[in-house]
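Handout, section B. The chain below has 168 residues.
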Amino acid sequence: MIGTPLRHNGISWVEAVAATTFTIIIPWLFLVLAKFRGGVSDLHVTQRSQRHKIFALTAVSILCGLALLGWLGASATMFVEVLSILAGLLTVALINLWWKVSVHLAVGCYVVLHVSAGDAFLAPAIMFIALLSWSRIRSSQHTASQVCGGVMVGVLISYFSSQLALLG
């Protein structure tokens, strides 16, 4: 988010800071506060039942961020990025009602595919995804199927984002 103006000339730093605040910083503060108050057992929110409130608060934060971006007259590119993040969050939250999917992999895949956005960086992106997948399984945070589910969500949201960007 914060580096978006480096990739897209039409995005201002004010837009990037606003989007970063509402998609990353505020949700992270919710999580730290929940950990401090005992609402979650750990910062990775490994217990599926504890994720719902964090997902809901994050969605509210992102929606507030979208409202602020609208008020600021933000570019369509920034809206696509933030809407893609919201779509990823809602997808993971929906899946999480029945099954624990790796949010690390969903986010990691989306970010590296989105940032690489070209053949030259595809091999390092795939290596990063493989390393992150291995680490989540090796640390016993997820099963292989949960990691694959996260990868699939990240890839789908990245595809959705690129298609939405083509429309705008």
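Note. Helices lie at 4-7, 13-37, 51-72, 76-96, 103-116, 122-138, 144-167. Compare this with the example in section A.
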